Amino acid sequence: MSRYSAWSILAQGLRGNRGWRRAWREPDPKSAYDVVIVGGGGHGLATAYYLAKEHGLRNVAVVEKGWLGGGNTGRNTTIVRSNYMIEGNTRFYERSLKLWEGLSRDLNFNVMFSQRGQYTLSHSPAQMDAARRRANVMRANGIDAELLDREAVARHLPYVDTSASARFPVHGAVLQRRAGTARHDAVAWGFARGADRLGVDIIQQCEVVGFLHDGDRVVGVDTTRGPIRAGKVGIAVAGHTGHLAAKAGLRLPIETHLLQAFVSEPLKPMVDTVIAFGGAHFYISQSDKGGLVFGGDLDGYNSYAQRGGLPVVAHTMASAKALIPSISRLKVLRHWAGAMDMTMDGSPIIARTPIEGLYLNGGWCYGGFKATPASGWCFAWTIAKDAPHEDNAAFTLDRFERGVQIDEKGAGPYPQAH
Amino acid sequence: MTASRLPTGGRIDRSKPLSVTFDGRPIDAFAGDSLASALLANDEILVGRSFKYHRPRGVFSAGVEEPNALVHLRTGGRHEPNARATMVEAFDGLVANAQNAWPSVRLDVRAANQLLAPFIGAGFYYKTFIGPFRGTRFWMFCERFIRRAAGMGSPGTLEDPDRYETVNLFCDVLVVGGGPAGLSAALAAGRAGAQVVLVEQDAQLGGALLSAPIGDPSDAWLEAIRSELSAMSNVRVLTRATVFGAYDHDVYGVVERVWDHVAAAPEGQPRQRFAVVRTKRTVMATGAIERPLVFGGNDRPGVMLAGAVRSYVNRYAVLPGRHMVVATNNDSAYATARDLAAAGADVTLVDARQTVPDELASQSRAEGVDLRPGCAVLSAKGRGRVAGAVIAPVSEEGRATAPGKTIACDLIAVSGGWSPTLHLWSQRQQKPVFDAEKACFVPAGDTVPTMTCAGDARAAGGLATAIADGFAAGENAVIATGATNAAGHVPEAPEPWPGDDWTRGIAPLWTVTRADGKPAGKAFVDLQNDVTTSDIDLAHREGYQAVEHLKRYTTTGMATDQGKLSNVNALARMAQLRDAEIADVGTTTFRPPYTPITIGALAGNETGHHFRATRLTTIDEWHREHGAVMTEAGAWLRPWYYPEAGEDVRAAYVREAAHVRQHVGIVDVSTLGKIAVQGPDAAEFLNRIYINGWKTLPVGRLRYGVMLREDGFVFDDGATARLGEHDYFMSTTTANAAPVLAFAERLLQTAWTDLEVHVTSITDQWAAIAVAGPKARDLLATVVGDADLSREALPNNHFTHGRISGVEVRVHRMSYSGELAYEIYVPALFGRAVWEALIAAGGPFNLKPYGTEAMGALRVEKGHVAGPELEGRTTLNDLRLEGFASTKKPFVGSVLRNRPALTDADRPTLVGLEIDGEVGALPGSLLFAAAGPTEGRGEGWVSSTTYSPALGRNIAMGLLKNGPSRMGETVRVVDFVGDRTLKATVVSHHFFDPEGERQNA
Amino acid sequence: MLRIPCPICGLRDETEFSYGGDASVKRPAMAETDPKAWMDYVFYRGNPRGRHLEYWHHVQGCRQWLVVERDTVSHVISGCRLAREVSP
Prior knowledge:
The structure holds three protein chains of three kinds. By secondary structure, chain A is of the alpha/beta class. Chain A is built from eleven helices and 18 strands. In chain A, strands 1, 2, 8, 9, 10, 11, 17 and 18 form an eight-stranded mixed sheet that branches. Chain A has an eight-stranded mixed sheet with strand order 5-6-4-13-14-15-12-16. In chain A, strand 9 (about 210-215) and strand 10 form a beta hairpin. The longest helix of chain A is centred in the last third of the chain and has 18 residues, at about 370-385. Chain A is globular and about 65 Å long. Chain B is α+β, with helices and mostly antiparallel strands. Among the domains of chain B are: about 165-290 and about 420-480, FAD/NAD(P)-binding domain (3-Layer(bba) Sandwich), CATH 3.50.50; about 515-585, BFD-like [2Fe-2S]-binding domain (Arc Repressor Mutant, subunit A, Orthogonal Bundle), CATH 1.10.10; about 620-670 and about 765-855, 2-Layer Sandwich (Gyrase A, domain 2), CATH 3.30.1360; about 675-765, Alpha-Beta Plaits, CATH 3.30.70.1400; about 875-985, Elongation Factor Tu (Ef-tu), domain 3 (Beta Barrel), CATH 2.40.30. In chain B, strands 9, 10, 11, 12, 13, 14 and 28 form a seven-stranded mixed sheet that branches. In chain B, strands 41-42-43-44-40-34-45 form a seven-stranded mixed sheet, sandwiched between helices. In chain B, strands 46-49-48-47-50-51 form a six-stranded antiparallel beta barrel. Chain B is elongated and about 115 Å long. Chain C has a single domain, classed as Folate-binding fold (2-Layer Sandwich), CATH 3.30.2270. Chain C has one helix and six strands, in the order βββαβββ. Classes of the chains: A alpha/beta, B alpha+beta, C mainly beta. Chains in contact: A-B, A-C, B-C. The interface between A and B is large, with 118 and 123 residues.
């Protein structure tokens, strides 16, 4: 495998780029592995990568029903941040952000993590109070956060409507400078290439249709390319977790909902940061290609369809215009949707399941992308050691029975509200 | 001068010249021109630069698929980047400028990027910029330059002065596309009596027929159909309108560019209109888009689609060159060759097919066309524009079988076949299949039975076939909707022309290469994004072979045309490399919008203060007239404070709160949620939904209640009064008015269907005014008639009926401030009248209004919980409300509130905090023990704070671990972001008058 | 956009309704004290891919809670009844 660098680009360029090799192999599945990870998205690939890298488990396969990164990894709005307030979330997401900061070097693949900062706007005194609490929790946990007033927001983001006459006048913002965006596809490809180099078999076009059992224990997966036995099976198929887990007999605190995302035509630099509007659910950034990337609310009903409806389209555009009035004459180029595992408290699950040999990673709601490295890191730990790391210890399946709801929004057991 | 305006012909109005400029240069244009046709007529060949290499580019198409001719349109607040010159109708005063080029489109310094092409091919950025250092700084340094180079047009910075609107349309049959098939479909459905909406993106109906020469037999056909349709009142024709998305349940998104073809919309008119169409059946008569051919230098200005060239000649009377090469692999380009020859150009027609249909061959030769079967263009020559074409005989695979010969030319018109426009059809998750014979994807196996394709959209065949196909689709659509009139006969098609069927006899030709299989020069697959065949080769080599990986790795199909031109050629190249069939490679997913849609149009009327309705109480105007500063409270605006001269918010609220405790104050509490709970089982219902008991509450009394969510966390609180035997009046917090009602209805309709109870929102029916302070009773005694407000007759938590200024009111004696206080409920329309009557009567008592900030100060002094404490994660125990919970009955949440972690005594629990010193604490500060590090989560947090005028000090409410057992302890209040640490003493949250003597006065 | 055939109001846009989740779960009787029964009602869901019975509340119409039968992949609605007429 060739190592990527400016030199390799130069050398290959002079030789007509004929020497580049496959980024990952395309092996046929073996009959058995130590660990099989179901789901070739960012989380599954990261899990395999860290199993091999951190725990020396290299007899590992990732099975993917379609193509790598084809689920939510390849259709999210790419925001990376660690501005979480509730116990269980705060340190986990900060671990993830720290992994992000070294990820391109670690993977020898530029995932284009650009720490262009995120502004989370507040539009009332009550929202400012909540913002202060969040920012204080972040700071007390060693995470960067600043609380800005309206004037500072107006100075930093001149294109945002900070006028007093705005429908939702800006009162201030929490700024996390280390937040930013990354190139979503590159994360899947980088982890795939990294895992492959460590010996992991990545098997595309291989759908899991059931689980292999030995008594009460799961000992493998049945796939469209035949049965594959495994010492341990990890599920990382967010969006389809409930559906797949049901095949193993699990009933989960998850509903699948759809979330839309939007991109504008390519434009010269305009929004050089990430902004979350507080007047409505809306967030926006601009990709390196120049497209404004933005999103809003869930469509709000159970769906696996990966296509959204007009009401959310119209509302998201109205939110965009309310936040940035000059956006009105720009054009939206494409909109799409992903299927989200929405949990009953808005927080994920990375845990052993009640079924021996079966491990679950899911419930990412619509915050899974930023979690990718830590999710893989912690899931790998949990699988390898049969016990959670302290950073994912809260993300258990039984937390609801115990009364621990990791509820960032305080929205209660209503998945579409998170 | 090579491109020029023809002296006659075309569908332009030479009597209406327009003033148009491009990059400051005047452009001669006429009504009926597109910006692109005007540019070509003025020999403006170089109009844009590509995304990555900044290569010079010219107009390539005549339609929505245009990848090159993107411009800045208009100026100032009406500036629009990435406007497709092919879709911009010329108008008087049109100002367009080239974009993505510096200093000018003719001399763009970033064209130097081309020199780096070997090193910056597909995905190069994934392999470098990783940097020698830890962290992301090196990448971000490099990224800055990449970002500046990327992007196409520049966004404007000014507010959009135009208005937009949203409308709803309903119909039986929606016909998308106003070409021959769509017109026929609309005709059939219209004649049958169905409600029809026909949508056409062009300014004119006619579709491909508009590209025929003036006087063509199709003109008469078109005119006949147009006039028949316009006479039908049940057919609504929208031109300049795009169906951009097909959504579930037969809902379609349409944007109509109502006044976008003029410099500025007339006063009061919308620039664009967003129509949400709900239909029963849809006919997709969306036509087909011509495919380019892939060969060396195929991006040079002067290479154009053959069909587009025909449009420019016939519709716009522009001859885009004098010496033309037309390159094709199918019949359709023969029409272009014919019409070019007729317009006076000399034409060489190279057809990659070894055998050419006899009729076409002889006809073409008779018209003076130099026909060369079995040949293809191997490469285009020229720098800024095409100067020649290298022509060679080719094999079936597109490999040159002999050395090429250069012929001088100034235009190369290409046709690689056609792709049916299946975008809308596919958006509803239908997968097209590849038809190898017709060399295109076609719709198959309609999984959405309410939608059919017709005409070119399903590669039906030539003009007569398209007309018959469209008509049949229209008839079938009507049958399904139940209309019964006869549709009559298919309109007789204009006389067919032998080359009008592109589906017949096409020989697929994907990439034209030299004998060694390599293209002769850079061969572009995606013009705008500069994706070449070598990029696809690289993606294949590196394993990015799945169609989505190919797209994402090379960016092919991700440009503003979303692959309309590039997708099939890219797939074909990948299929060749994988030695697979195109059908097995598959396609990427079609997503809305079909063409880029203005964000402002979709936002519609929801802009400015119409973005979200603001709710105002019926007393609102009085507040503003009296200088209130307003604040957001959910959807409501409420008075925050009423400043007197020179006061800021702090000075004002301290004065207002103190005034209430000393004299009497008045506050508008109309925003509280109000719900009528009525029926024989009303008490039982309340008993279940509230944690406390309701069965013993007598008529005339009211009671504070708390409700939980199903999961046992605190949901809401408020007072409920028993108005009658079966009639209760519930109040909720402002924020939860709607959720509480919906929850109550859910319980009653899904679970407790046996209870005879009805709940009704009456929030909007009642204004509410609180009067609080030691003089409240004395004041009210002077204005409330027909009621005995005496201490004995109306103790706390009782209500009575009365009359103020002739208005019947209900006076609840209850206190939020802790003072002697009343809430007066008034029919909403009389809110202001009663308020003013109270103000008028209040003079002798020194009555003053107070806002939400003072209300908050008063409630913090009393230790009442409100929004900051009812934050969705707190339990009864956390808020010290467990004493209200009945132990004798179950209630909503009574089981799950006892889950282990929720009964942990260590949970942060409500306390009062007396802040040391002159400076108050800020809500959202964290609580830490007096000693030790201030890191981690702390021991709790500050929820609400105020300066207490009554106590003369700063106080706060907060949730502190083990709070109740820590009375008297000193804790630190840390505001990290404000960089301030305060000390505070833990006290009871009932700061002021804990015995409640004042409210019972 | 979904269009929901409200038994009271007729075919109406999704925007008039609010979603209430899985309608196949049954609320335990008030006297139920087993936390497991309540957990099943409040937290655990079948989340099927395909036919789904779900609550919708016609908040901007008749304010009735409805039980809609809808496919979670095709979004096709095949039934809609008043919740109070569906035995839970």
